[in-house]
Amino acid sequence: MELSAGDVPPLAEQMLGAGLEAARQLGRLTGEMHLALASVPDDPAFAPEPFTALYQRSLYQSLRSQIRQAFVLLRRRLDGLPEDVRAAARALERREDGLVQRARAVYERRITAQCTRGHGDFNLREVLYDGRDFTVIDFEGQPARPLIDRRRKYSPVRDVAVMVRSFQYVARYAWGGEAVRREDRAALEPWVRFWHVWMAAAFLRSYRETAAAGAFLPTDPAELEVLLDFYLMKRAVNELRAEVARRPERAAIPVQGLLSVLETADAAR
Fold it and tell me: What global pTM score does this model have?
């Protein structure tokens, strides 16, 4: 998915209307949040830090380890997954090395960016909407993680990717819920993708236009794309491990997310 997403087509504007405007508002707010968090250079707790080659390599090594751990768990629990998830899970299980290779892109080229303080767990559950605008809540990050980890700086693109995955998650969760009959899901599948792709595109474009006033994003669109792709994959891998372990009925959502990453890579090649 491109962080430099272009204009939303007229059909999406017509079909999604108010939803797209809400996504744009959320994108602007996210950009303003990141600008504010990077605006105190004299405070060591908030001063932006360089996105170094050593840091890039550590990102890859961390995700490689997380992929290996997630796939060990997936293979162990494969037969216990719901029947309608198993086929896709088996297809994903055969592509482990492809995901690791995809993750390598984050350190195969120099990325000129900055690490800043961020929200830490930025998804649709962490914003309140009053019908006019959004308010961001819960800046404590993920409570299960040590405080020193929650204070650690990272690329703001991580927050952006987690929100994009949240759009995908809520669409897939609604599609697979009790409100949708099983026999209707195949017909609704293209509309699920239509909704989350264009909501995310509106959010991303608005975010980039706002955040461009700062210095924490790469100016090269290709570098920006590598970061977004990396963090989308990282989030989906973490979702896979969590859902397979605790809520196997939801495992289809991260499985499909990771298969989409691989399909994008195949198409690019």
Answer: 0.91
